[in-house]
Write a structure and sequence with these properties.
heterodimer; A: alpha+beta; Glutaredoxin; four-stranded mixed β-sheet; B: alpha/beta; Rossmann fold; Ubiquitin-like (UB roll); 4 domains; five-stranded mixed β-sheet; 25 helices; 13 strands; about 45% helix
Amino acid sequence: MPLRNEKVDPPSDDKRWRIVQATMQRNGFERDGLIETLHTVQESFGFLDDESLRYVAASLNAPLSQVYGVSTFYHLFSLKPAGQHTCVVCLGTACYIKGMPAMLKQIESRYGIKAGETTPDGQLSLLTARCLGACGLAPVAVFDGSIAGKLEMGEAMSRLQEMTEVDHVREA
Amino acid sequence: MYERLEEITLAEQESTARFSHTVNVCMAAGCMSSRSDAIKDALTKEVEANGLERWCRVRGVGCMGLCAHGPLVSVDTDQSAETLYQYVTPDDAPAIVGALEGPPVERLHCPTNVPFFQRQKKIVLENSGRIDPERVEEYIAADGYTALIKAITEMSPAEVIDEIIASGLRGRGGGGYPTGLKWTTVAKSEGDTKYVICNADEGDPGAFMDRSVLESDPHRILEGMAIAGYAIGAGQGYIYVRGEYPLAVARLKTAIRQARRVNMLGSGIAGTQFAFHVDIRLGAGAFVCGEETALIASIEGKRGQPRPRPPYPAEYGLWGQPTLINNVETLANVAPIIRNGGDWYASLGTAKSKGTKVFALAGSINNTGLIEVPMGTPLREIIYEIGGGVSGGGQCKAIQTGGPSGGCIPAEFLDTPVDYESLAALGSIMGSGGMIVMDESASMVDVARYFMEFCMTESCGRCVPCRVGTVHMHNLLDKFSHHEAAPRDLVLLEKLCDMVRNTSLCGLGQTAPNPVLSTLRYFRHEYIAAITEEAADLYAITPAPPTSRNGATQHAPAQEVAS
């Protein structure tokens, strides 16, 4: 039987680590719970940093190479913190046919970032999805977690504007 | 054995009998994204404000199919036929509640006497939009779990498999492998521990039928898995769901909990010795995980990379044990087959493709949404009658089926009956059932490049032909797309297609050239038109002008170069 190191202390006394621990416990601290654990870390902390990868690896008694390998293999895991706001643009076939590439280009040039990047002020992360499965509503984008279907260029731009502006107002 | 189900059904019927009106709100992802939850709240409030809650109930149901006209709300009464409302907003609640007794609200009314609703034949989707996916009682009242009890109390595992063989059911995930044969192989494999895996990693862009089934009727999948478990001798099942489908995951979790509570999952199901447990495993965004060996690696918590087959998962699968992997839609057909018999299922469809198929209509088509039709329905009927024709008044140029592993079928083949063989003969595949309609404005070279970019990004990197080949094919297609290609590029592209197709490790690489090959076959003139004179001069070869679409002139430039 492989040694199991269940008593690894979390990197800090942040309460969010308890949620991560609970996920690992539910899977009996087995390595096959790795993907689910990484999902929980990302949901709790927003992204996967070195510290969390080391902690998960030690807790599941898995080589760090496996944990790092898994976290870079799957698209949904991010090793970088996301911006204050996120915009996920769907690039599925239906959205592609309905003109999403042009819309994406426009957003990229308006904010000076490429898909997958975050603006230098940390306000906006622009992400792409393979297909959100809402093809009936193409083209589709997700603004801070809320899906918008049958999107038009003007609407997309004003949603982004609103999202990033709210914070500026609050800061001022 | 059936008493428990009858009890629940009776209690359900009693509790609903006092309602003369039922207002159903679509709560699947499509309509949810247009805030159908707020519509449901508004309707509930309106019913209460008018003191109607004693005879009118408001409930959430699964997908009603016509996503293009969402959010959808339907009203059932015990006197008249169902009324369907389209493009509903929360502000429409007073109007809808006000019209419960009278004629429907004209401005929201969606006619249901049209081909979209009348030409469909629903087996997989029979409960979608008709039951609340979050209540097991409604599934049971709609004959749910009777097939499972029938299987485990009245049939031997071999008889269950015979019924599936008789039905002629084939894998709905794309390959079309006979389901009964797969079950037989796993049943015969030696091993005390076996597993059933439901493949819900619906990665094809443009396909959303699995998501819809999981969100609209999750118990149907659990029942199918339990029957499969009984037939092959497995006690544990896993559902591998895409991480991108949070609503489907939530509904599945609820369904598993409820099924355990009514003893349709867990130990000693319905008082028998049969035990079956189901757990959910989440994907994290990797198209290749739809391939069965990659999927198994992912369930084991590893990078989702495929391995060479044989041994097939039927012999050496999850944790080295015999494993049955079926797609969501395949498993959704199991309960109805056991309930009604394999012969009933085999009476639908064509000679080699039995039953029905769910298609996701998207792209330049009026009625985008989910439909289910018997196998063998001609493409023309699907696109022009059920689908309502091409949107924006354009002409249909091609239909893309099978996603990145499929191909583009040109409009002249619209009369082809849709089944596994006829689509393969046209150079495409059935795939999981995504159907993207493209009008005259679509460039076929761009479409091929789009899919190649997809395969390039999704290649797991394990084998060289796929990892390197897709990059080079994408670069070549990029040249064509920017009208910078030379005749030599066309030859190279075709060679690469051939090489990647024949030497890749798994289905992703083997089928990655399909979109290129099918567009080269039917729309070769578009590639030739993208060959520039400057680039051609470099190689001292002049391309033939893009004159016609028939074979002779199409092949001319490539042959010149080759000779």
